[in-house]
């Protein structure tokens, strides 16, 4: 069991990590749930990191995957307790381009909803891998570290997801080019 008293300097280092990575983690969380919940989970992520500071491997060059791992676990717990997963994922369907005409926006929103439904059908581990790659922009290695699986498993999960998404007409994947030819 980790000590309830972090070592000297841990709070200052986590403050630096928050300044460096907090916004990126918050943006990822906000895409997965409402902003208030995302902010709460972000705060809880850094509190948890401080409490578990001794479990962080100082030989790692970057704390970002470790922090994303904590945030992802807290987010899953949030969904289980609040049963908000479906609502949170559907919020992504809002078009970011307001200058499109209504027909284009509707087509875009329908395409996003279709992709979100496909993501909902994926195993949670596969969906988490896809979202960490696409939304958090983590590398394969960082995803492996955040989720505690080998890099080969990350590659396999992303390949399975791409295969499933290729069947969705009219969608694209910025990481793999057009998904439907």
Report on this structure:
- It contains eight helices and two strands.
- Strands 1-2 form a two-stranded antiparallel sheet.
- It has 181 residues and is mostly helical.
- It has helices spanning 10-32, 35-51, 64-82, 85-90, 102-121, 124-134, 140-147, 151-166; strands at 172-173, 177-178.
- Helix 1 packs across helix 3 (64-82), helix 3 (64-82) packs across helix 7 and helix 7 (140-147) crosses helix 8 (151-166).
Short description:
Keywords: Sigma factor, Transcription, Transcription regulation. The protein has 181 residues and is mainly α. 66% of the residues lie in helices and 2% in strands.
Q: Order of strands side by side in the largest beta sheet? A: 1-2
The computed structural class is mainly alpha
Determine the number of helices (DSSP H or I, runs of at least 4 residues): 8
Tell me the series of helices and strands, N- to C-terminal: HHHHHHHHEE
Oligomer type: single chain
Total strand segments: 2
Strand percentage lies at under 5%
Integer average pLDDT: 78
Which blocks of ≥5 consecutive residues have pLDDT under 50? 92-98, 173-181
Euclidean distance between termini CA atoms: 52 Å
Shape: globular
Query: How many strands, which pairing sense, and closed or not: the largest β-sheet?
Result: 2 strands, antiparallel
Portion of residues in helices? 55-70%
Rg over alpha carbons: 18 Å
